[in-house]
Structures are given as C-alpha cells and as structure tokens.
Specification:
Structural class: alpha/beta
Bound molecules: pyridoxal-5'-phosphate
Low-confidence stretches: none
Number of domains: 2
CATH class of the largest domain: Alpha Beta
CATH topology of the largest domain: Rossmann fold
Largest sheet: 6 strands, mixed
Helix content: 40-55%
Number of helices: 11
CATH architecture of the largest domain: 3-Layer(aba) Sandwich
Mean pLDDT: 97
Length: 301
C-alpha cells in the first residue's frame, strides 16, 4: 500500500513578541499528516494498529464522547487499514448525531451507546471481558488512544525535530502525548504540557506511570500547566476565540478551541510574562484535532 501520510514539517513562527523577548518558536505540524487521521491521534494509534495486526486481530474497539477526535481518527484509520472498528460512545444515543459520529458511521465504524454510569467503569477488566462475550474478540484501545503503545508513536516526534530546541510544548488531555514526548526526550531538555481540563493534578502521576511502563524509569524534566483551561474541558471564552482567529490571520494556521488554541494562548502568555529566558528555543506541537471545529461552527463564521 502507498503511504497515505504526509510529513509533519517544523516551521518557525515570526512575531514581534518573540523578537522582543529573544525567543524562537517553532510549530511541529502534525495537523498536516492526514486529512482525517492527524495529529497526536495518529501518533498514538500507529503502534496499536501495528500490534493488532501482529496479533492477527481484525477488530478494533475503543471508547469516546460524541465529539471525540480519537473516535474520528480511529474510524478513519480502521477503514484505511482494513480493520473492523467498534466505537462505544458515552451517553444516550443522541437524536441528532454530531458530525464526528456521522463521519465515524460513514467510515463503517459500528457505534454503540453506553450510559454514563457504566461508562465511568468501562476500563475495568471484567467489563472489557463482558464486552468480548457480547461482541466477540477485539483489540482494545482505551479512550483517547492512550496506553503504553501510544508512547512509541509519539516518541517519534522527538526524533523528527530537525532544529535545536530547549522546550517542547503540547496540549494535554489524558497525558499520553506528553508522556510520549517525555519518553522521547530521555531526560534531556524540557517538556511542558498545557492541560485542557481543570486540574486537581493527577496527570503528573499518570504521565510518570506511562513513561515508567514504557521505558522503565521516570523523568522529572517536564511540568504541566493548569492555568489555561478556560473553565474546563471543551469550554471556551471570547478571548480564546479571538486568539484563534488572530493566529489564523497572522500565521495562516488553523487551531481549534479544545486543545491547540488553549496551548498556544498559554504559550504566548508565558512568553509575554518572561517565563522563558532569552535565547530559549521552543517547539510547540500542533496536535491536530481540526475535525472538532465543526462543534464550534457558530463561533467561527
Ligand atoms: C486528544 C488531543 C489532545 C490530548 O492528548 P492526550 O494524549 O490525551 O493528552 C491534544 N490535542 C488534540 C488536538 C487532541 O485531539
């Protein structure tokens, strides 16, 4: 099969703010990897698909919400690589399906709905086993695509960075992407995660556990910032929407409000507040997720 994926170039962003503060900022364009299977969701799927194939599993089963970038990417990747895909969606079947669910169905993902109470316990092994009894055997990919195999794909981002750098930044949900970057850095340089969720910080421990499960040691050269979640997951404020529009006009690069918009807003604010010393070279990861914009169409007309 021909490789359906594009490269993810590293591009420098030029802004008066960066000049004034003496920092250099680069963006790693994982949004360009593929129209549908893009960003960190592809990075996290890559070695899971590989493992599924190796184990001769033809069915993928995963979980997510009605607007999930992971459901969307898994549906498209399954179709592309000829897996059968099952998506278990949080909550009641909606009367009007989101664009994400319509797309997943168009890729022949089978969709089932799980009430929120049960969904909270979905990862318990007894519940996964009971799904096997009901549905038949499958390769299980957790919500958000985050497991130890996900780190192997994310780690490749670090190997691809073709410019010297001091910091690498990513948006954070489950922490899987940050964990992959931390693993890839092997204790060198620094990684910064920007949480899209309000935190009580259980994320740091989660990242440590993932990194340890993957390479056997923990690293301390990372931190997670909880100051730019804009009131919580998927919540937006006019400031954030304005920033995303400004970013598009200035750099010609589209962000979305759930993850990448918040990260770049946070990064610009930290630069403004002299968080980075002069001479710092910062790489910010564009984790994709642009399908999610359709849920915010009214803000971007
Ligand atoms: C899922 C997602 C994230 C969060 O990644 P985690 O590995 O769950 O922390 C960040 N950005 C985008 C665009 C995403 O879709």
């Amino acid at each position: 099969m021909q490789n359906p994926f594009n490269d993810s170039p590293l591009q420098q962003l030029h802004d008066k703010l960066f000049e004034e503060k003496g920092v250099e900022v680069f963006i790693k364009r994982d949004d360009l990897i593929h129209e549908h299977v893009q960003g960190n969701k592809w990075r996290k799927l890559k070695y899971n698909l590989y493992k599924a194939r190796l184990n001769k599993q033809n069915t993928l089963l995963t979980f997510g919400g009605a607007y999930s970038n992971h459901i969307y990417a898994t549906a498209a990747a399954a179709k592309l690589f000829h897996f059968k895909a099952i998506g278990i969606i949080r909550g009641e079947e909606p009367q009007i399906k989101s664009d994400t669910l319509l797309f997943a169905a168009s890729q022949e993902m089978e969709l089932y709905y799980m009430d929120r109470e049960m969904y909270r316990q979905k990862d318990e092994s007894a519940n996964i086993e009971s799904l096997r009894v009901q549905i038949g055997d499958f390769y299980y990919i957790p919500e958000g695509g985050t497991n130890v195999h996900a780190l192997e794909g994310v780690e490749e981002i670090v190997e691809e960075l073709s410019q010297p750098f001091d910091y690498v930044c990513t948006a954070c949900g489950t922490g899987g992407t940050l964990a992959g970057l931390v693993a890839g850095l092997r204790g060198d340089k620094k990684a910064i995660g920007f949480s899209s969720l309000k935190g009580d910080d259980t994320l740091t421990e989660k990242v440590n556990e993932l990194v340890k499960a993957y390479i056997g040691v923990e690293f301390t050269n990372f931190c997670i910032n909880f100051d730019y979640h804009f009131a919580g997951y998927a919540k937006v404020k006019p400031d954030l929407i304005e920033f995303i529009k400004h970013f598009k006009n200035k750099f010609g690069i589209q962000l979305e409000p759930v993850y990448t918009g918040k990260m770049f807003y946070g990064l610009f604010d930290l630069i403004q507040k002299d968080y980075f010393t002069k001479g710092s070279r910062i790489v910010a990861l564009h984790t994709g997720g642009l399908q999610g914009l359709s849920g915010y169409a009214e803000y971007f007309r």
